[in-house]
Structures are given as structure tokens and as C-alpha cells.
From TrEMBL:
<feature type="domain" description="EAL">
    <location>
        <begin position="24"/>
        <end position="278"/>
    </location>
</feature>
<protein>
    <submittedName>
        <fullName>EAL domain-containing protein</fullName>
    </submittedName>
</protein>
Length: 278
């Protein structure tokens, strides 16, 4: 079949490309059906208040369990969902599901429990986004101040003026806004001053190796100080050791999240381990 295609070299490359394209297409067709087939669920990773050690909320993290592929990580399928536009439907499912779950937990007694939901760039740029958030709040009965939307710097910087207007609309609704993976993007300090945000979430790459006498500690310290100056809360993500918790407390970091504290939990584990103690 390669006779007319211009020789071996080209055939070699195109075969490899075809294979990659096929894998992608296969994944895409699976992803298209995943919602209807109920293959998604959310895990909830606790967020703790470092001054009290108590859980005040959680971050919803999507999981895809495909019968043939097994567990596919969001790092793999979220980018594909973004490129194909499937993220609109998936993201809207995540938002509703997370709001409904958090409201349920509040009614079970954790009245001030908050929920953080990741929002991808494509989802954020949809004209219907604000309406979608409004609907999720209305349908779940969750009060807006208990919902935090996590955006990355790159999402916001795609179109900074538009982003600011959407963020202002969210603030007007009473929803909180957080910058996720903070420190890995390119937001300049002058942008930061003008962004209507409530929380900075320090990227886990700065926290994972955090020790005394490292450059990371200088960076983390600077971000926390800046957070205090800007009157925003600072969350450290990716806390993996006791030493890191102690350092973060010393630096007056408000909140923390990480495997050392809790892994992302299934609903039942969240309820068994945490709900009573909140
Ligand atoms: P993220 O929003 O920064 O979420 C934190 C990620 O770090 C999660 O990975 C979490 O399991 C992991 N993590 C938490 N603590 C630790 C720790 O101590 N050490 C290490 N090494 N990792 C830790 P996950 O669940 O695989 O999600 C990866 C990314 O996928 C998320 O990063 C987020 O960008 C995206 N994502 C996850 N769920 C959703 C969703 O529902 N919608 C959208 N748009 N994106 C999502
Ligand atoms: Mg996040
Ligand atoms: Mg993050
Ligand atoms: Mg991240």
C-alpha cells in the first residue's frame, strides 16, 4: 500500500502518525460516551485550615473509569476534552455534581463546608458559563459563598479583559475565585493587583520539595506575604510531609491540601473519616 506514497521514509512516519491518531480517536470516541455511560465520578480532597487543623472544605477532582482502559487520569483526558469541546458537557456535570454533593454534606451537619471546582479554559470562555454557574447553584440549593472556582493563570491570561469581566460577574454572584497552580504561569504583579480573586493556590511544585534553606521556601514565603498584602487567602497544594506543614504554619499560610493530610477521597471515605469531625 506504500507504493504510491513516496517511499519508505514517508510510510514510516505516516504509519506512526496514524497509530497516534487512532489512539486519540479511540480515546475521543470513548470520552464522547463516558457521560451517558456513567463512567465519571468525583473524588473530594480535603482542604484544611492551618490555624485550627480542621477541614473546611474540599476540592472536587474528576475520575474516569473506563471498562476497557481502566482508570484514566484527568491529566490525560482533560486536555483532550478541552480540544474537542467535550469539556463543556463534562465541566457542567462536574459543577452540578460537586454543588449537589457539598449541599448534601452541609445538610448532614457540616454547615460551612466549601467546595472547590476546577474550571478549564474552554469552559470559562463559553458565553453561557455564568448562567451555568447560576443554574448549578439554583438546582443544588448551595449558597454561592460556599463555591470556589479554580482557574489557572493561563486560562485568565488568554483574554485578560474578558476574564476580569467574567470574574467580576462571578464575584457579583457571590462565588469565590481562586488562582490554581499559582507561580507556574506568567501573571505579572500588576495583573494580580487588578484581578478580582479570593485565593491563591501555590503550585505543588514549590511545596513538594519544600525544606528549610531552599530557594523554594523563599518563593513560598514571598507568595504568602503577597497574599496577606493583597488580602487574599493562600492555599498550599501538594503537602507531602509533616515538616512542610510545620513550615507553612510558621509562614502563616492559611490553608493546605496534600497527600500528607488526605488523598482525594471517595464519597464514603470522606463521610466516614471526616464529616463527623468537621
Ligand atoms: P489541580 O487542580 O492542581 O489538582 C491537584 C492535583 O494534585 C490532583 O491531581 C491531586 O490528586 C494532586 N495532589 C493533591 N495532593 C497531592 C500531593 O500531596 N502530592 C502530589 N504529587 N499530588 C497531589 P489529579 O486529580 O490527577 O488532577 C490533575 C489535574 O487535572 C488537576 O490539577 C486539574 O487541573 C485537572 N482536573 C481534575 N479534575 C478536574 C475537573 O473536574 N475539571 C477540570 N477542568 N480539570 C480537572
Ligand atoms: Mg485545582
Ligand atoms: Mg493545582
Ligand atoms: Mg496542578
Amino acid at each position: 500500500r506504500s507504493k504510491n506514497s513516496g517511499g519508505n521514509r514517508i510510510t514510516f512516519f505516516s504509519t506512526e502518525m496514524n497509530e497516534q491518531a487512532l489512539i486519540r480517536l479511540e480515546l475521543e470516541s470513548y470520552l464522547r460516551k463516558a457521560l451517558q455511560k456513567n463512567e465519571f465520578h468525583l473524588c473530594y480532597q480535603p482542604l484544611i485550615d492551618l490555624s485550627t487543623g480542621k477541614t473546611y472544605g474540599s476540592e472536587a477532582l474528576i475520575r474516569w473509569n473506563h471498562p476497557k482502559l481502566g482508570l484514566v487520569s484527568p491529566g490525560e483526558f482533560i486536555p483532550l476534552a478541552e480540544e474537542t469541546g467535550l469539556i463543556e458537557e463534562i465541566g457542567s456535570w462536574v459543577l452540578r455534581t460537586a454543588c449537589i454533593q457539598n449541599k448534601k454534606w452541609q445538610m448532614m451537619g457540616s454547615r460551612d463546608l466549601t467546595i472547590s471546582v476546577n474550571v478549564s479554559a474552554h469552559q470559562f470562555s463559553q458565553p453561557s458559563f455564568i448562567q451555568e454557574v447560576t443554574n448549578a447553584l439554583r438546582d443544588s440549593g448551595l449558597e454561592p459563598q460556599y463555591l470556589t472556582l479554580e482557574l489557572t493563570e493561563s486560562t485568565m491570561l488568554r483574554n485578560i479583559d474578558y476574564s476580569i469581566s467574567v470574574m467580576k460577574a462571578l464575584q457579583k454572584l457571590g462565588v469565590r475565585v481562586s488562582i490554581d497552580d499559582f507561580g507556574t504561569g506568567y501573571s505579572s504583579l500588576s495583573y494580580l493587583r487588578n484581578l478580582p480573586i479570593n485565593t491563591l493556590k501555590i503550585d505543588r511544585s514549590f511545596i513538594n520539595n519544600l525544606k528549610v534553606d531552599t530557594t523554594d521556601i523563599a518563593i513560598v514565603k514571598a507568595i504568602i506575604t503577597m497574599g496577606h498584602g493583597l488580602s487574599v487567602k493562600v492555599v498550599a497544594e501538594g503537602v507531602e510531609t509533616k515538616e512542610q506543614i510545620e513550615l507553612l504554619k510558621q509562614l502563616n499560610c492559611h490553608y493546605a491540601q496534600g497527600f500528607y493530610i488526605h488523598k482525594p477521597l471517595m464519597i464514603s471515605d470522606f463521610e466516614n473519616n471526616l464529616l463527623q469531625t468537621i
